[in-house]
User: Which sequence fits this backbone?
């Protein structure tokens, strides 16, 4: 029986042979970039953090024990890295410019402002709630997948998502009350 490609890549990297790293990069970079962007909400930060995560994969490949899938391990490593990045407060904010407004002519400015308030509000969530919210609502992971990625139970994932939504409703309501004339 042939070993999965990921296991071959892992074994070769553990022995110091990184010839297969470009294949690993090609297979996972797009999905990892999506995760990075959902957390940072800034293209440059997402690109920078993707590179840092890929370097971490090389540095931490020995910590992959095979108890979960490589995909799960990689996602967990990425989320931990991104959570640390956000907690250090180094993320850039990206303002919407005229080209983005022009790209969505059917969306009124108010909808775009609301979307921007939501993006900024997500960053204010406590780390655990933010991780679950992004994984479920923006990346489409199920509660069982989130549980495996984050090392929590599926019921904890559901509970944290519910609390995240409640906190976001409060933050957004406050923003609109303060913005009202």
Assistant:
């Amino acid at each position: 029986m042939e070993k999965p490609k990921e296991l071959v890549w892992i074994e070769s990297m553990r022995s110091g042979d990184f010839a297969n790293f470009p294949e690993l990069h090609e297979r996972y970079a797009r999905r990892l970039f999506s995760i990075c962007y959902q957390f940072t909400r800034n293209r440059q930060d997402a690109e920078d953090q993707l590179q840092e995560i890929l370097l971490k994969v090389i540095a931490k490949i020995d910590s992959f024990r095979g108890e979960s899938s490589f995909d799960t391990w990689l996602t967990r490593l990425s989320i931990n890295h991104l959570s640390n990045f956000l907690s250090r407060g180094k993320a850039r904010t990206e303002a919407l410019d005229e080209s983005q407004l022009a790209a969505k002519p059917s969306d009124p400015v108010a909808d775009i402002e609301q979307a921007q308030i939501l993006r900024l509000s997500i960053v204010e969530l406590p780390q655990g709630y933010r991780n679950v919210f992004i994984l479920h609502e923006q990346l489409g992971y199920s509660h069982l997948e989130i549980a495996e990625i984050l090392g929590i139970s599926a019921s904890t994932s559901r509970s944290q998502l519910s609390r995240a939504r409640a906190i976001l409703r409060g933050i957004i309501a406050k923003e609109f009350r303060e913005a009202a004339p």
About this structure: The chain has two domains: 5-87, 98-179. Residues 98-179 form a domain with the Arc Repressor Mutant, subunit A fold (CATH 1.10.10.10). The chain is about 75% helix and 0% strand. Residues 15 and 62 are 10 Å apart (CA to CA).
